[in-house]
Design goal:
The chain has 309 residues and is mainly α. Helices cover 80% and strands 0% of the residues.
């Protein structure tokens, strides 16, 4: 006898033992469903109100600080930015040990990651004298990267890995700017690094942030390569780069890479044939090309990505 049949026999036995009718059982099931739906709706409403309250509170605090900013001395300016941000960071750190504050951890870490670098820049502006502003920006990125990454290694919170990558990428870009490295080379190097890191993250429990960094990394690679190749003898070679990104998207099964590569192909095609698009045949060619690329992306997604998930 199957498990379903045994369960039904037990239900029938209990109903006969306690004198329950089919209507009583049906009413009880409907009552439970309504209660469950009501609780779910109330939970969603409470979350929305909590998020709105947080946004309004932060907006009010920002406006208040902005109104009194000129009246603050240097120490107060640092306190209301760096001090508040660090306090929120410490509170989020403490909340990681208490499951009751689990849903508040990510917003608090993000707010701290916004206020702390702002406070560091304010501190350097108030107390530092002279020097290159880019050096101060690099100092801020190094400090924040160290804090966020070490905390991530200790706590394993995904949002800290996200902020670590952000400050790491910003610091790398600032360092290349100080060294006066060409933007195209910087963008390609940074994009390759971020795409590689995103591939590694995609194989861990932190895979939720991988699509975002796939998009950022591929965008840097595609735009940096365009900046290097445009108006040169090798300009036509650029078509191979989005095609390579598209192939990579199929290999790693990433819709994000497929999207960015298709957008890059369409944009570069329109730019490359910009003089021909003024006539009807050029517009028709561009239209058929866009349709073909869209169909190709959908076919690749269906054949190599959805079928393997």
């Amino acid at each position: 006898m199957s498990d379903e049949a045994q369960a039904l026999r037990q239900i029938v036995g209990l109903a006969q033992e306690h004198g329950l009718s089919a209507e009583d059982i049906s009413a009880a099931l409907q009552s439970d469903g309504v209660s469950s739906n009501s609780q779910r709706s109330f939970g969603i409403l409470s979350k929305v109100l909590a998020y709105l309250g947080t946004v309004f509170a932060l907006a009010g605090m920002t406006i208040f600080i902005g109104m009194l900013w000129d009246d603050f001395n240097s120490a107060t300016r640092v306190l209301v930015t760096l001090g508040v941000g660090f306090a929120i960071f410490l509170f989020a750190l403490a909340a990681t040990t208490d499951h009751r504050f689990g849903k508040a951890i990510t917003p608090m870490f993000l707010i701290a990651a916004l206020l702390q670098p702002t406070g560091i820049i304010v501190m350097l502006e108030e107390y530092a004298r002279g020097g290159n502003p880019e050096h101060g920006l690099l100092f801020m990125c190094v400090v924040m990267l160290t804090q966020q990454f070490l905390t991530f290694r200790a706590k394993g919170v995904t949002v800290l890995l996200f902020t670590s990558l952000f400050f790491g990428a910003a610091g790398f870009g600032t360092l290349c700017e100080i060294m006066e490295i060409d933007f195209g080379i910087t963008a390609v190097a940074l994009g390759i690094g971020l795409t590689t890191v995103a591939f590694s993250i995609d194989k861990t429990t932190h895979r939720a942030i991988a699509p975002f960094w796939y998009f950022v990394g591929s965008t840097f690679v595609l735009y940096g390569a365009f900046d290097l190749l445009k108006d040169s003898a090798l300009e036509i070679v650029y078509f191979a780069i989005p095609a390579a990104v598209m192939y990579l998207g199929v290999v790693v099964r990433s819709r994000t890479l497929l999207f960015s590569s298709v957008m890059a192909l369409m944009s570069f095609t329109g730019w490359y044939f910009r003089d021909s698009l003024a006539n009807a045949f050029g517009l028709m060619f561009m239209g058929f090309l866009l349709i073909s690329l869209s169909a190709l992306a959908m076919q690749l997604n269906r054949k190599f990505i959805q079928s393997r998930r």
